[in-house]
């Protein structure tokens, strides 16, 4: 279906095409545009074109400030009337090419269906990888999109009497019901009422580990969660820790202080869940007595929270000793004593609790929702899971493990599109990218990692990188790079030129911003959740992925907020080694010594929609 | 029955094709199964009427749907074949030596079939549905598994609520072929005695000592409590998660598509267009439908596309938007008519007709991708009560295929017309389908399987939107479903010409309702 009468060279660089846009219009065309813009065409005509034109093309070619401006006033943004007559009906029954002289060079104007097809074909790299759109195709795309956005400015009058039912949020691209200018906000959340997660168990049973990890996971998937460690409250209230004596059940003052700490922690829980918009609070304390758990349940009932207990039971002395050495010796309680003393004191401390410990009981606690984790994940007892969030929590807790391991994250080698400063696409590796793949192979051989699994995306550049390693690997579609929708394979300069508003919106809230017809970082996190779950299950894994994907994965392991996430630095040709230690993750960054372009674009100072092009492009990394 | 015949024959074909493929042993089938290195045998444990068969069938349906070839081996079927006429519970007494011998023989034959399925037919998971109440039997199975290099995962169902048991007996066992045309009370009585026979020798899984090294899940009182021991791998963790999410409370799921959209009228696919006037009429009719059926505490889910949201807005009830319910992404073909696709991408169009399930639009998705995307929706649907899902044609086909246990070949051709609500109600081992046409006219958007094309003649489809080297796992065809009463022992490989009319017929019937459920019970077994 390639146009036989297209006179231009298919290898025309697209930037030339872009440059040609401004001057590339005939007088006739210009006049026609003007006529339409000025509303000189009839209403019927416009409606008709509006109806037939919006479809076919990825509608968002025409998104522009004008579009949003209108939308807020209740306009029909997604109807982008098209002014060129060759488009009219052309999509339904392709017409033969129409030759129209253009001002700059005698090039062919294509029917919309033709350039549309070719452009989209180019975007999806259908037949020839690395093929560029022809100059004339680019020109047509830009011309029409430009025309459309101009058109829209003047169209309000016509559309005002169309009552709007839905309006699309420009940032998240979500359709929202719209009544009398008021947008109804709906939070999509599976939990109807907030959940209080309560840990149960003797000291050094990994309660804090579970709490922190669970909090990190829930925050990452977008459920606002906070951890409340009663130990921290106790340390706050009792600056100096003397010895285990404090924890003896017959130490009345100690008991009183501890009770007080628990109460003030619960007060903060209430504040967080009912005022600050938290969804889940993790109450991290021993809660070893039925009495204490009863108090908590009463508290939750009064405040309308659901309670879910997480009990960790472990009898293996080795695991306990290891836990104490790893975590507790660095504890502020034991700042000033030797590790032997600390270990001894801690064992005494555990004994203080042992006497009064009442584990969750199958019969007595049969109405309570809980999970009992036995011997660090060897066995689980799950009772009365009542809702979505509890079921997610249970699934997560059943998949995590504490076997020492490392996760290696890296991006594919430098790609052809990286060099050109274009985003997305499915290009192959550059020569330096291939060099990196060889270095990566050497790196892996040096490291000599046991049972290393390698995962890639389903894109050519990661698979090429993995192929060089000479070991088996798995392809995940979920690891594919963020879908930039209409901006795929564009340079930042081009995005700024064609979609300045989109570009500014993205800088304003990069995490939530969804590309027209594409994805947001928020969408990515949802898509990557199964990957994280499987990473938690696995041991040593190397993930060869992409910039945005790596940022999301990294944010999970390093507990970064959604503000930090989209700006995490993940340079090319650098392997990050993540090793879980104590409650966190140790990161080692290994640069493999192969040069590459920089693809990191920082947040510019000016994110205003009216900013100048220079301001918008302030932080664009250098490229060809 | 004819459709099952076709299925099993075809699967033999494709299995043979696969065996010649050197990569077949490394990378079997699709996305969810690559984490399992060796085939897994799931062994049910529990007294009669504890929902073992219910769980087996449901689990099998789920696993097949996510792309892991799975099959149930119900020992009752083997036993019924060996002993044609069931007399009474006496047969199940542990001191009935002759009967014990027969029952053991049946188990051995079933295990042989399991072996053939997992090692030769390309199965990934075999569900061994029997009581397996004695350690002796379980040890026998473990020895068998060890010998063949399979993994084993036990699912024990423990239930001491007499009401639940009675309900199960009434619903399922009364219609069992063991009790033809008998009086209800007598059935119940006989069955309870039969349970007593097993109770004498029942040894529960002992998590603290004898069975502490086994991988198992104990489901206590129909999902009120679970004990999970030593989950070994991805697929086991998936199974555990699934079993923890299913419930037996009666609920109905309503599936429908958005009202007719402008694109529908124009015959274009995809896009994000608005409702047509008739589409809006449908939304009104849907509202009346909900009022009429008095669907209180109904949850409404939509996609994030405008046409479903517009439809839901008319209902005047709260609803949730799911991005993962969005229509299949047709990539470069978005917003084209079929004619345009045929004109612009004739090759793609032909490829899609050859294997619609696996075909991925350039820059878009395949039905297989869609199934993977929809998995969380299914999990949540299993958890919920009454839900109305307002979705799209391809999405509805995938959801429906899960509930009606349709294979990859039929899934993309299931009929999901506009302006029609399907009510799915789980009954016994299957799903009852009721179809409500809301009497608002709409265009037909269904494009049938092209005539004269045998989907199985197709060569492997090579994805073009992403570079896929030979080691990619998702190119191998998904084997056929075996669950829910298909007969593995039917004559092999009927000729394609013999199958054609049946395939055409099968397109006609969208809602077989529960008819596939009963088929196993009445099917004859010719192995002995």
UniProtKB/TrEMBL annotation, chain A:
Region (Disordered): 1-33
Residues annotated as domain 6-phosphofructo-2-kinase: 190-404
Listed GO biological process terms: fructose 2,6-bisphosphate metabolic process; fructose metabolic process
Coiled-coil residue windows: none
Gene3D superfamilies xref list: P-loop containing nucleotide triphosphate hydrolases (3.40.50.300), Phosphoglycerate mutase-like (3.40.50.1240)
A GO molecular function held by the record: ATP binding
Binding site for substrate: 411-418, 461
GO cellular component term, pick one: cytosol
Keyword flag Amino-acid biosynthesis: no
Keywords, ordered alphabetically: ATP-binding, Hydrolase, Kinase, Multifunctional enzyme, Nucleotide-binding, Phosphoprotein, Transferase
Domain of life: Eukaryota
Family listed: In the C-terminal section; belongs to the phosphoglycerate mutase family.
Name used for this protein in its record: 6-phosphofructo-2-kinase/fructose-2, 6-bisphosphatase 4
UniProtKB/TrEMBL annotation, chain B:
Domain 6-phosphofructo-2-kinase: 28-249
Top-level taxon: Eukaryota
Keyword Cytoplasm: no
GO cellular component terms given for this protein: cytosol
GO biological process: fructose 2,6-bisphosphate metabolic process; fructose metabolic process
GO molecular function terms attached to this record: 6-phosphofructo-2-kinase activity; ATP binding; fructose-2,6-bisphosphate 2-phosphatase activity
CDD domains hit by this protein: HP_PGM_like
Polar residues composition bias: residue spans: 1-15
Region of interest called Disordered, as start-end residue ranges on this chain: 1-23
KW Transmembrane helix (keyword) present: no
Name of a matching Pfam family: 6PF2K
Keyword terms, alphabetized: Acetylation, ATP-binding, Hydrolase, Kinase, Multifunctional enzyme, Nucleotide-binding, Phosphoprotein, Transferase
Binding site for substrate: 257-264, 307
EC number: 2.7.1.105, 3.1.3.46
PROSITE patterns: PG_MUTASE (PS00175)
Function: Synthesis and degradation of fructose 2,6-bisphosphate.
Family, similarity comment: In the C-terminal section; belongs to the phosphoglycerate mutase family.
Quaternary structure and partners: Homodimer. Forms a heterodimer with PFKFB3.
Name of the protein: 6-phosphofructo-2-kinase/fructose-2,6-bisphosphatase 2
Species per Swiss-Prot/TrEMBL record: Crenichthys baileyi
């Amino acid at each position: 279906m390639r146009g036989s009468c297209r006179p231009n060279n298919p290898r025309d660089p697209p930037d030339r095409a872009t440059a040609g846009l401004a001057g590339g219009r005939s007088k006739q065309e210009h006049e026609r545009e003007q006529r339409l813009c000025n509303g000189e065409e009839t209403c019927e005509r416009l409606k008709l074109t509006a109806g037939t034109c919006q479809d076919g093309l990825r509608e968002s070619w025409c998104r522009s400030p004008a579009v949003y401006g209108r939308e807020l006033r209740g306009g029909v943004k997604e109807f982008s009337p098209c002014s060129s007559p060759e488009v009219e009906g052309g999509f339904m029954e392709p017409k033969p090419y129409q030759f129209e002289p253009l001002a700059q060079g005698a090039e062919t104007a294509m029917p919309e269906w033709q350039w549309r097809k070719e452009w989209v074909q180019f975007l999806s790299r259908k037949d020839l990888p690395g093929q560029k759109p022809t100059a004339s195709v680019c020109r047509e795309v830009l011309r029409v999109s430009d025309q459309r956005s101009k058109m829209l400015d003047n169209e309000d009058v016509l559309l005002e009497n169309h009552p709007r039912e839905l309006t699309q949020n420009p940032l998240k691209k979500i359709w929202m019901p719209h009544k009398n200018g008021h947008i109804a906000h709906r939070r999509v959340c599976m939990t109807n009422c907030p959940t209080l997660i309560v840990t149960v168990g003797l000291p050094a049973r990994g309660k804090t580990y579970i709490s922190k990890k669970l909090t990190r996971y829930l925050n990452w998937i977008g459920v606002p969660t906070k951890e409340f460690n009663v130990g921290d409250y106790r340390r706050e209230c009792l600056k100096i820790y003397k010895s285990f004596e404090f924890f003896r059940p017959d130490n009345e003052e100690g008991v009183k202080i501890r009770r007080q700490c628990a109460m003030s922690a619960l007060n903060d829980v209430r504040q967080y869940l009912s005022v600050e918009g938290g969804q889940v609070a993790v109450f991290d304390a021993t809660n070893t007595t039925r009495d204490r758990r009863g108090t908590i349940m009463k508290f939750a009932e009064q405040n309308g929270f659901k309670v879910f207990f997480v009990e960790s039971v472990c009898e293996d002395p080795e695991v306990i000793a290891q836990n104490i050495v790893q975590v507790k010796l660095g504890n502020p309680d034991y700042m000033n004593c030797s590790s032997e003393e600390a270990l001894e004191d801690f064992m005494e401390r555990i004994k203080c609790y042992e006497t009064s410990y009442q584990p969750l009981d199958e019969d007595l606690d049969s109405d309570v929702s809980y999970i009992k984790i036995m011997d660090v994940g060897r066995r689980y007892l799950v009772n009365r899971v009542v809702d979505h969030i509890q079921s997610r929590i249970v699934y997560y807790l059943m998949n995590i493990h504490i076997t020492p391991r490392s996760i290696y994250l890296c991006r594919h080698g430098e790609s052809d599109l990286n060099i050109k400063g274009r985003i997305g696409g499915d290009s192959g590796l550059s020569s330096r990218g291939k060099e990196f793949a060889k270095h990566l192979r050497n790196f892996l051989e040096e490291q000599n990692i046991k049972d290393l699994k390698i995962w890639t995306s389903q894109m050519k550049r990661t698979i090429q990188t993995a192929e060089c390693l000479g070991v088996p690997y798995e392809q995940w579609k979920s690891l594919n790079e963020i879908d930039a929708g209409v901006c795929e394979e564009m340079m930042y300069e081009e995005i700024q030129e064609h979609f300045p508003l989109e570009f500014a919106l993205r800088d304003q809230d990069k995490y939530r911003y969804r590309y027209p017809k594409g994805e947001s970082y928020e969408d990515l996190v949802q898509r990557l959740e199964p990957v994280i779950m499987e990473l938690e299950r696995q041991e040593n894994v190397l993930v060869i992925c992409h910039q945005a994907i790596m940022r999301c994965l990294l944010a999970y392991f390093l507990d970064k907020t959604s503000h930090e996430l989209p700006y995490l630095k993940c340079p090319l040709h650098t392997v990050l080694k993540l090793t879980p230690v104590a409650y966190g993750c140790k990161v080692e960054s290994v640069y493999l010594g192969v040069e590459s372009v920089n693809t990191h674009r920082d947040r510019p100072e000016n994110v205003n929609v009216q900013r100048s092009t220079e301001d918008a492009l302030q932080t664009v990394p250098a490229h060809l | 029955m004819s459709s099952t015949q076709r299925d099993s024959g075809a699967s033999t074909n494709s299995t043979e094709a696969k065996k010649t493929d050197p990569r077949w042993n490394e990378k079997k089938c699709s996305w969810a199964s690559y984490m399992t290195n060796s085939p897994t045998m799931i062994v049910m444990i529990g007294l009669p009427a504890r929902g073992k068969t219910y769980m087996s069938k449901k689990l099998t349906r789920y696993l097949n749907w996510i792309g892991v070839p799975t099959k149930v081996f119900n020992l009752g079927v083997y036993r019924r074949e060996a002993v044609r006429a069931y007399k009474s519970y006496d047969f199940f007494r542990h001191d009935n030596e002759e009967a014990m011998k027969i029952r053991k023989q049946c188990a051995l034959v079933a295990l042989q079939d399991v072996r053939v399925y997992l090692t030769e037919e390309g199965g990934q998971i075999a569900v061994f549905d029997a009581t397996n109440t004695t350690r002796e039997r379980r040890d026998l199975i473990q020895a068998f598994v060890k010998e063949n290099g399979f993994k084993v995962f036990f699912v024990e169902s423990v239930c001491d609520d007499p009401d639940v048991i009675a309900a199960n007996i009434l619903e399922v066992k009364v219609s069992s072929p063991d009790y033809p045309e008998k009086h209800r009370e007598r059935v119940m009585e006989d069955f309870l005695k039969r349970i007593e026979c097993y109770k004498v020798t029942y040894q529960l899984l002992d998590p603290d000592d004898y069975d502490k090294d086994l991988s198992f899940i104990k489901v206590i009182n129909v999902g009120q409590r679970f004990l999970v021991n030593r989950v070994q791998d991805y697929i086991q963790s998936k199974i555990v998660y699934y079993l923890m999410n299913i419930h037996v409370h009666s609920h109905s799921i309503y599936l429908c598509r958005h009202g007719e959209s402008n694109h529908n009228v124009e015959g274009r696919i995809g896009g994000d267009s608005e409702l047509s006037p008739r589409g809006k009429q449908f939304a009104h009719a849907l509202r009346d439908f909900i009022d009429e059926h008095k669907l209180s505490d109904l949850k409404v889910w939509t996609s994030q596309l405008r046409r479903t949201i517009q439809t839901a807005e008319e209902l005047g009830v709260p609803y949730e938007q799911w991005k993962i319910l969005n229509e299949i992404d047709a990539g470069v073909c978005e917003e084209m008519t079929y004619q345009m696709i045929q004109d612009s991408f004739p090759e793609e169009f032909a490829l899609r007709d050859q294997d619609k399930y696996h075909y991925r639009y350039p820059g878009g998705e395949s039905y297989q991708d869609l199934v993977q995307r929809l998995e969380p929706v299914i999990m949540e649907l299993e958890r919920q009560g009454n839900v109305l899902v307002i979705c799209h044609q391809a999405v509805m086909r995938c959801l429906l295929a899960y509930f009606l246990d349709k294979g990859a070949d039929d899934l993309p051709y299931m009929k999901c017309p506009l302006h029609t609500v399907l009510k799915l109600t789980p009954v016994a081992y299957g799903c009852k389908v009721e179809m409500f046409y809301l009497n608002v006219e709409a265009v037909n958007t269904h494009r049938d399987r092209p005539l004269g094309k045998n989907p199985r003649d197709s060569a492997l489809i090579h994805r073009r939107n992403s570079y896929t080297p030979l080691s990619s796992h998702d190119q191998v065809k998904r084997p056929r479903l075996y669950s829910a009463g298909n007969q593995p022992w039917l004559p092999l490989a009927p000729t394609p010409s013999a199958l054609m009319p049946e395939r055409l017929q099968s397109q006609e019937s969208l809602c077989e309702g529960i008819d596939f459920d009963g088929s196993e019970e009445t099917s004859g077994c010719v192995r002995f």
